[in-house]
Amino acid sequence: QTKTGIALLYDEVSENAYDIRLKLTKEVLTIQKQDVVCVSGSDHSANHRTVTLRRQPVGGLGLSIKGGAEHKVPVVISKIFKDQAAEQTGMLFIGDAIIQVNGINVESATHEEVVHLLRNAGDEVTITVQYLREAPSFLKLPLGSPGPSSDHSSGTSSPLFDSGLHLNGNSTNTAPSSPSSPTANEPKYEKRWLDTLSVPLSMARLSRYKTGTDKLRSNAFEVLALDGVSTGILQFYTAQESADWLRAMSTNISDLTLQNMKMANKCCSPSDQVIHMGWVNERLEGADSSQLYKFKFLALKGSSFYIFSTPPVSTLDWVRAEKIYNLCEVLFKIHKLWLVDDCWLQANLYLGIHQDFDLEDQRPYCFSVMVGHGQSHYFNVELGSELAVWEKSFQRAIFLEVQRTGSKTYMCSWQGDTLCFTVDFALGFTCFDSKTKNVLWRFKFSQLKGSSDDGKTRVKLLFQNLDTKQIETKELEFQDLTAVLHCIHSFIAAKVASVDPVFIDSQSIARKYMYSN
Fold it and tell me: What value does the mean pLDDT take over residues 373-384?
């Protein structure tokens, strides 16, 4: 199914916007611009057309013009009047820029100079024109007019004045002149939408923000292809149109990502499948104000969480990730959602492990992935639906890895002794001497009643003795305490999910938000 529509292409340098047509298929976004093409009678280029107009006693040249050098735009034909000289040639169109009048170049002329030339050019006026494909939207030319006969008003909101040349100029001939009409041998021209840029959507990314900043573009976004080619800023007339196009493109990109995942998974073992992957923005720590965010490509595959600067397209690319973390040792956390009632919802998805973040940025749909040694990555996505998918995917990938791994053992120490601490999906917690392998203590997951740590290396685990019902405190010291705490959390969450999956689903902040909308 193909989606089409009219939008504006915004040029950030000139601050002008140009009329374009968008054509969206499952795999490609095509940008079209209007141009005049020769459809019969000649094979030469339609870039420049030279047309002779015979001024008529009633109606004059039968056209209006707009623009001029004082506005930093060419003089363009803004209206063509029905059954009058300009229309009868079949070779002039609204949006044509006037290049020459009777051999005099007017590309740098002001509006008044061109008006004066045309009015005083005599009964026969020869003009050379070129269709202006990127007519700034402030010219307010009627959009999509199929042919020269379209007589649309160019709108009173235009900052540029329409000068009508459908009245008589200084003509010496009072007798009716024969109308200007195309002969059989003359070339025939039509105004058409032509493809100017095609952006493949596979592994493409969307951005509603000004590059690297928290400044949200109003009713606008850009699409960037895998090779970095950009559509430029696509500007829409209403917020609804912008949201519809953003959703449509995001859906197509997601569908193609799913196809890529299926292809990749054919080459991977069952224990090394891609669960989810896609583009996000990562907030840069300690960055200057000009570049707060950078595009990153995340993947959940097998036992690992990958962070790439560019997507992996071959099997070899997977070892070239910027960062690779074990899924048992990461913690996914949603930070905030922009709700309908315009207030922030601070969402601590996983209770029990709290970490304060500096949430001074103004982007919605943010999540962090906390990793070992107290470090974390802070990400943002464009849509609430993407956030819900990442939440579900992290959960699924972590649970699968816990069940596959079965247990994880960490070296630790207490009071000078080197010990081993094991988290086991079936047995719970076990601590044993690293040399003698003697088990010092063992508790089920359900016996863990609380914990506290010094934020560095030491943790106190509070277990309830099943016989005495008393709380026993076990104190241990780890080299990477954060990784161990995340691992404990992953195993307990996976255990709960295996017993009561409905409870885990009920904790989903992002999906609650999605359904409420």
Answer: 91
